[in-house]
Description:
heterotrimer; B: alpha/beta; 6-stranded mixed beta sheet; 10 strands; 35% helix; C: mainly alpha; flat
Amino acid sequence: MSLSRxxxxxxxxxxxxxxxxAWQVLAWRASTPLFPGPWQVTLSIWKxxxxxxxxxxxxxxxxxxxxLVAAALMIPLGILLGRLKTVGAIVEPIMDMLATLPPxxxxxxxMLFAGTGDAAKISIIAYAAxxxxxxxxxxxxxxxxxxxxxxxxxxxxSRLETMLRIDLPASLPMIATxxxxxxxxxxxxxxxxxxxxxxxxxxxxxQRQQENFQxxxxxxxxxxxxxxxxxxxxxxxxLEKRWLFWHYRSSDTHxxx
Amino acid sequence: xxxxxxxxxQGLTKTYGxxxxxxxxxxxxxxxxxxxxxxxxxxxxxxxxTTLLFAIAGLQGVTSGTVxxxxxxxxxxxxxxxxVFQDYSRSLxxxxxxxxxxxxGMARIQGLSAAQKxxxxxEMLDAVGLAGFADKYPWQLxxxxxxxxxxxxxxxSQSELLLLDEPLAAVDAQTRADxxxxxxxxxIRFKQTCVLVTHDVEEAVYMADRVVVLTRxxxxxxxxIVIELGKKRDQITTREDPRFLAARHDVMTSIRGxxxxxxxxxx
Amino acid sequence: xxxxxxxxxxxxxRALVSFLIIVAVxxxxxxxxxxxxxxxxxxxxxxxxxxxxxxxxxxxAAEWRTLLRAMLGLAGASLLGVGLAILSDIxxxxxRGFAPIAALIQPIPPAAVVPMAVFMLGxxxxxxxFIIILVTVWPPYFNGVAALASVSDIQIRSGQxxxxxxxxxxxxxxxxxxxxxxxxxxxxxxxxxxxxxxVAEMLAGHDGLGFLLVRKAxxxxxxEVYALMFVCAANGLVLNAIVNAxxxxxxxxxxxxxxQPA
Lengths: 257, 267, 262
């Protein structure tokens, strides 16, 4: 138990290093461009990073636009539906049904309506991000503690004021969960949509590499996606920690654990 | 009367951290518990009662000193010691019903079939007055009833020593009085040796044959006092008994005195 | 009083009610010609498209493959995820080593992996197993690690006082205590596994619902496309029901404790 921190983090390195080594050895033994090792992937990253970064840029722009559209529409709608209990109760099963539909399955239909341009892709992304956002916001707003309502009434807030100043902040922790799911969903759908309705973006880049049997380049692109995803996840986490510290603080004292 | 020592603590010290941040909680605690005795250990808030209890139970090591149970040193949880924790809602297992929770207390008793364990568990639930609740789950019961399940589990393990870690601190006052009497009855009925750790002076005196009074940190035994009220106690007459009042006064003075010359900022 | 009970009845069957509302609104939009009929067929057209696919057997074949892939993938990913979580709980070195790997692989969308994986694994079951597990294993894993780490100290100590070994404490106390949270992860994983299958079939496939969806769309068989989307959503319900049944078996106490219906 009295391992120093250094020793412990060194031990933590054993597994990743072992996996990289095993992968490299397997790749050497296979010695085919269809099964590149980490070294070839590193070379590909070095050669292609300007191109990869450019293509990821297109992908992220579209993902961000779709995501923002969804957030702007769905968070207010979710809070409103949570307030209007009857309408919410009727709409809830519809949300549940939409939630079980894999977002990529919508791509063919949107393609028919909106073609294959940016507008089509952004609408698909917006749809994909909308479902988790709407569901989580609605759920949070619906299950709000009745105490909050009493406080609002004693302060003589109007309905709009109540929603803005009490419902919204109180729902934020669950909205944050929805946001994280929505980010993942938006990324997933942008890459899929690009591959089906291609013009540019990282999905197209990966597909080209596949068509040219350049597996190492494709893996290099995947490595970039993974790092971008990691950065975005961390960013969301940091924002959550800054803005929702009260939630974590109070669940520390009252939570079970 | 020949004394049969079940548990003995000799010079227990415990220091958390090292160097400048070192915090000495136990300063050399020694006391003993005899077979069949009900001993209360009482001390001011923050005096390391839980640390002491965990050391006796073998759940946590000490810095120096030894705990012996039946003459053997305690380094890990020994066979024959059961603990009833204060936090009943977390010490019971919500995925087991009450009978299975109690039967789980016999998990390591060999030579008992599953059916025998079930019967024994039912018997213990009867003893704590929960005969009809065997098939219910802990979370379907009130706090006081949950703690009775935990007590039944402790009794079912057929341990020579039952450690009670503030078992009644989280229940309401009325339930608390009932539970005190229940615990006393059970202790007599099963000839159970008990150590009750608490910060409640009244409870310590009311329950115990002997009270071990602790000082503030670094904690040592201030003094011990034998409560000569007989085994049978009564919520009304015992609490009015001059001997009870005298003992209560003695312990209270000692503990309040401890607090008085503690620095004002001490937690 | 009468109005009130009618309303209560409405709420009780609200799933049916809202389904009927969707159907009605859909049919109204189609009948009024608010959207081009070519892209927005009426309900009868969709139903007949659905029946047509049932009749010629293509729906059953595709549906069976997709659902089987999703179920097997989910089961494999759940077992693997929980296994990795247990390993992380036992060995801090493994946990530290695995955490960065998990953090890097977890954000990769399945679509990005499909083209590369086709080369290495072909178009058979290996491809689907790889893709589904790669994206589905994380919720059970992360939830498992968190839940095992946060099992109440007092529960573990109670186990120690009863003389249980480390392994018994893991099996009899920590795993049951962690089960509800693990199942929350598996439930989310079931959604992802379905997405992963459909994406993989769309991009790499030569069979399954995802493939059929794309083929029908390119052939402009619109009613069929909508019917297939409906089947996709129904699959989500099927997987959900399976996960719930397993959850009731393994963590039913928690559902009863929190008063959730089965």
